[in-house]
User: Which sequence fits this backbone?
């Protein structure tokens, strides 16, 4: 096996590394330039709710099978 420092191949490795870093930097700059950041409006929730309509709903359309809300399979696999 040849030593890359003595045979001159180290220059190719350094050029490859530098080219990958330059491409990464160019993609980062391009993403910063072409990325339009939209301003998001803040959502405000009404905290002065005196009535909870979902809590007062009766449970409807629930069939009781063997005293359970869940229907079991007729055949076990």
Assistant:
């Amino acid at each position: 096996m040849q030593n890359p420092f003595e045979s001159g191949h180290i220059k190719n490795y350094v050029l490859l590394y530098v080219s990958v870093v330059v491409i990464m930097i160019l993609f980062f700059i391009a993403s910063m330039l072409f990325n339009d950041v939209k301003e998001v409006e803040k959502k405000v929730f009404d905290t002065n709710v005196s009535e909870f309509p979902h809590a007062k709903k009766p449970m409807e359309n629930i069939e009781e099978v063997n005293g359970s809300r869940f229907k079991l399979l007729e055949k076990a696999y």
In short: The chain is about 40% helix and 0% strand. The helical segments are 4-7, 10-34.
